[in-house]
Amino acid sequence: MSMNPQSENIDPTEQSKGLSPTPQDFKAPQPPAETKLAPEIRLDEPSQDSTASIVKEPLFEPILQDKPEPEHEPEIYIDDEPHYETNIHHGVQTEDLEYPSPVAPVPVATTTEKTPKTNVRIRSIDALRGFDMFWIVGGASLITHLSKLYDWPWLQWASTQLHHPAWEGFTFFDLIFPLFLFLAGASMPISLGKKLDRGASKTSLLGKISIRAIILILLGIIYNGGLAFDKLENTRLCSVLGFIGISYFIAGLIFIFADVKHRVMWPIGMLGGYYAALMFINVPDHGAGALTPEGVFTGYIDQTWAAWKIYTPNFDPEGLFLPIAGAVVAIIGSLTGSFLVRCSWNKFIKAIMLLIFGAIFYGAYYGLQQVHPEMIVAKSFWSPPFVLLCLGWSLLLLGAFYFIMDAIGFWHWAFFFIVIGMNSITIYMADRLFNIGHTSNFLFGGAINKFFKEEYQPLLTSIAFILVWWVILFFMYRKKIFLRV
């Protein structure tokens, strides 16, 4: 957080030295001395010595240091935008209409020099995305194999959280997809909000999110084997990436054309309408409100409208109706991102507010369960309690990461996750297009089988898989290679 410098400009020529004119009074007035700004104070990062060093630069030092924002507009990533907090300019700090500061803005002296913006990276968003994707690149397998070797209670419990329930219930593995969508929404104030602030037309931004959604849908079809060009009834068009693309488009549409008040009202109305559709629309042979795999309304939509293959005979977990619920998660994520980027409150207060709102959403989930226990928690059709529970956990996790990494400034430990989080779409697509497991077995399989006991080999194979993935992502990170849309 930086402080605006204040200065008093006093013209010495205006101070009277007597009543009678002097020769100095007839001299041409000299321009006032150039106002110099006080050095910017960064409370969240240590100061760096500017003296030269003869020590050779370590490998990780240029990565872990902060870098100033480039003057040109940074390229936009599909879901891993560089996240920066409030830009506070020297001069008069204007009041934010969406998130006003509790302290009145203080006018200070202005200068003719163009002063740089103050940008502070919100590392917690990148790290939390990487933590989320870690379980896809081998984290789940690592915990599973550890639980088979060591009979520790916490490890046994953790292993039960790394699979999806058949229909009803909630595990940590169910949170991975909604958390990713929540963080994609949190990047909107950067990818879209900055363009709006710079004068981009809303129509042009609408075109961008439309193209992005179409490309994600096509990538999802490719992931499901669409390049085989099989018959439509044998090809699954619904996918995780397609789900993200549609949900992101809906949330982006609301972000572009709605003010903050209506952005709060939209998810409430959408989730309420989604609940009403599940409970009050009649499904043939099952009636209204049947929350079973055979009778749920979302499954009926898939069976009736989808001319392509669906995941199960009764429903598709990424079906046609579900992105409405997904958009609710993305919209709340965009509101969270706006709060972090545009609000000038203290970082510790921001972290506490994230935790409070996470508790509120968790309380809403618990209250709905008490009032309507028949409304089950199920990821298969994104039930309203499931959405509220995922929002609660997403805000609690982001609040914890933000408190540790951005408020306290203790972030270097998460560099492992940051590298993963900056190329999440690459992870998802390469998992299907390239056999990373074959590469890790080729590099480490022989040594593992020769030098280690058989019971330890699955665990070491999982570690090798994660290591190969991370080295690839680290190389892409160093070379600034990202999968963009």
Characterization of this structure:
This protein is mainly α and 485 residues long. The chain has one domain (123-478). The chain is 53% helix and 0% strand. It has 17 helices and no strands. The protein has helices at residues 61-64, 123-149, 153-160, 172-186, 188-191, 193-197, 202-223, 240-257, 260-280, 297-305, 323-342, 347-371, 384-407, 415-421, 424-433, 436-451, 457-478. It is globular. 35% of the residues are buried.
Give a topology summary.
Layout (H helix, E strand, L loop, with lengths): L60 H4 L58 H27 L3 H8 L11 H15 L1 H4 L1 H5 L4 H22 L16 H18 L2 H21 L16 H9 L17 H20 L4 H25 L12 H24 L7 H7 L2 H10 L2 H16 L5 H22 L7
Helix pairs in contact: 2-3, 2-4, 2-13, 2-14, 2-15, 2-17, 4-8, 4-11, 4-13, 7-8, 8-11, 9-11, 11-13, 12-13, 16-17
| Unreliable segments of 5+ consecutive residues | 1-28, 33-119
- Measured as a percent range, the helix fraction is 40-55%
How big is the Rg?
27 Å
Q: How many strands?
A: 0
Give the CA-CA distance, first to last residue.
32 Å
How is the biggest beta sheet arranged? none
Shape: globular
Give the ordered list of helices and strands: HHHHHHHHHHHHHHHHH
Q: Which structural class best describes the helix and strand composition?
A: mainly alpha
Strand content: under 5%
